[in-house]
Amino acid sequence: MGRRSFIKSVSLAGGGLIIGFNWLACQGPTEEGGKELAMQMPEEWFELNGYLKIGDNGIVTIYSPNPEIGQNVKTSMPMIVAEELDVDWNNVVVEQAPLNTEVFTRQLAGGSQSIRQGWQSLRTAGATARQMLLTAAAKQWEVPVSELSVENGIISHKNSDRTIGYGEIAKAAVNVEIPEVVELKNIDSFKIIGTSRKNVDAKKIVTGQPLFGIDTFKEGMLIAMIVQPPAFGMEFKTMDAAKAKGMPGIKDVFTIDTYPDDMEKEWSDVAAFSKLVVVVGESTWQVMQAKKEVKVEWDLNPKLVKQIEILEKSAGMDGVSGLESTSIYMTLMSDVGSKKSEIVRRDGNPEKAFENAARVIERSYTCPFLSHNCMEPMNFFADVSGGKAELLGPIQTPEFAEKSVNKRLGLDLENIDIQMTRMGGGFGRRLYGHFLVEAAVISEKMGTPIKLVYSREDDMTNGVYRPAYHVTYRAALDANNKLTAFHVNAGGIPESPLFANRFPAGAIENYLAESWSMESNISTGAFRAPRSNFIAGAEQSFLDELSEEMDQDPIQFRLDLLDRAGKNPVGEENDYDAARYAGVLKLARDKSGWNNNTGLSRGVAAYYCHNSYVAQILDLSVKNNQPSVDKVTCAVDCGIVVNPDAAKNMVEGGTIDGIGHALYSEMTFKDGVPQQSNFDTYRLIRHKEAPKTIDVHFIENGIDPTGLGEPPFPPIQGALANALYKATGKRFYDQPFISHMQDDLKT
Amino acid sequence: MAEFSININGEKHNVNVDPSTPLLWVLRDHLKMVGTKYGCGIAQCGACTVHFNGTAVRSCQLPISAAIDNKITTIEGLSEHGDHPVQKAWLEHDVPQCGYCQAGQIMTASALLKQNPNPSDKDIDNAMSGNICRCGTYIRIKAAIKTASDSQL
After folding, report:
1. What is the structure's pLDDT at A319?
2. Of A21, A28, A38, A566, whose Cβ has the fewest other Cβ atoms within 10 Å?
3. pLDDT digits over A236-253, tens only?
4. Portion 198-217 of A in contact with B at CB < 8 A
5. Which one of B15, B25, B90, B94 would you mutate to disrupt binding with A, by most A Cβ within 10 Å of its Cβ?
6. ipTM of the predicted structure?
7. Total number of domains in chain B
8. Which Gene3D superfamilies is this protein grouped with (chain B) (predicted)?
């Protein structure tokens, strides 16, 4: 589309349609923009409910309520509305909705819940508008609604040849009373849901158009960056900023306290450091240079250091430093943690079963802290002035961030406007909106609009990291090599990864689950599939080893346990559906040709989390201690698949992400100092290390949909460990696995 | 601060910046061409990839003083209508998830294909391994490069 028509759509419909323009353009990349030129922009819009508006020419704008972090809800959520509305998807324009708690519920990207929890309201929004349009047409034609039908936004009267488009009747429909009850479609008649639709932002992405928070530019805007303590456990003491302040383009250097002690905090108000030095200037490069010239004196934060001293002393350590080091975690977690454990679930008499066991198999697993490393570093635009805040940028929890700003700055909620941009990754990191609050505090202090930008180093060393975890599994086998009891004792810094009521709970007569945790001054939080992101791989590795000890096929071993859990479950509370769980295992087994010899080393794993079931079978080979993954077969049960190709993309990505983190990634600390600060020291999976093929298969069962952002990520780590064992003869218990493969190389 | 005249996407631009300023920040802050992304600042992630006389380079490492008198192409100038074979292949395979790294991936891929119109899997692995995709779209990136490669034949 040329510049003139671009400007035309903006002037006709306001800024919002800029997004629409790009979406329409992306429909016909091979047609030289033929289609969108043919599409006339409407003269007038009619809003039927908060989710959508209809143009007088039949174009429909659907607002995508939830934040987009790459999970593709900006395409799939509007698809659900469009389905029930009965419109041609090619006539739909998608816009990101701003935070609006009056219209939308749960505008949050997290827990793989957007589709699951949005399903009914999105369908209802579409169906309600459809009903209103039909009612208006029936009234105009003076016929009963029951005689009308709709296809692709065109209403027809079957007893006459009359038709009318949504665009023509929309004006009348606005005045129709909103129906309290609407009928939803039978899923067999879906035309959009279940068909693959391209990412609505794709054209904008591949042509480099402004889309992300960090791309924000507003007139008069300054750039702000932070200087933070060099170590966890330290805090700001004094600074000499004279030189930095005199550098070209620098406007000011000052300190902020993002979360004062007396502020009432939201759960999402987690930050590595509350007191920060802020440098504000005209351009990013100038501010980056000035940051280096601020002379800051840091001090031990007595409150934080104290906690670590207690930990170190409890571990019986000499030479207590008071600042955390990764090297102490292993000792803390294996020697101290398990002694603090408390029973979370107990079925039968596990103690007696272990006492009577012919054999007990015990294995422990660990994982390190991880940094989220969103490719788009933390950033936010803020313009706080005159009792109002305009905030724009990448945030997974806008509703909570609004409350934080309300409490921190004392602004009324109605004067806080939060706009969500497409996010360059989330993975849980942007649940914690301290950067938004920081931006607001800085803007208020400066009295100008600012864009706060973290450098990669700031981003990686100012994390809300995935906690470090530890788990010990024990299994009791009787003289006939039958499994008689199962014991899991899991903990971590600062939380336990245990899900006591998940499989294999319910499948084993005598079952004991224990949990422990210990504090840390390193800031931690949710990371893609929290807790599952470790415990799944550990559990699935242990079950693999157990099946081997019992001379059983690893898939059949799991299926037998699931069979028991389905037919005659142990205990009252088991958080999974054994049949669906078995279903993905069987599908993966069939599709992978499990019983064929591929000449490669194979590992299997299956897990249930975030309401979806995933089984993965991974084939690899190892040469010179370097694993090369040939193929992964994934079987997924997430109920109805809204957008199949996009869902497949998500499963591929989650699988690669899981392999990458389990193999290569870790965040370590020495005396509180993060030892990785950029991608030269923090290893992420790269192109050549990705599997050659990932096959994705979905179970078709017509059950209401559940999410996919997280479920493919945890189990693959177990499948990988199990395949590595087949290839090397060595079990991998501690992530990242590659460091232990290289141990072998050295010895 | 000094005045520099640079050629971006066939157009001359004059900017007044410190000579050490990387091209990345000149593009993003001064010319408001934000398709070229900041990811690491140390040439480890590839998000800032542009073409420098036709070769893929990391613009975070290219001081503006070294950019004068050279032909620079950014994602915004890769094609006039967003219809470069690599861009089309990216759309066909619906490659992006979050999308942040993809401009850099496309610039590296298009430079690869210019130099080597029929890359093997290994050629693609080698050329693309400097570009991190945190979402893990590597399989689709490879498939799209192959599609673009075929369409160039």
Report:
1. 61
2. A38
3. 999 999 999 999 999 999
4. 198-199, 201-203, 205-212, 214-215, 217
5. B94
6. 0.98
7. 2
8. 3.10.20.30, [2Fe-2S]-binding domain (1.10.150.120)
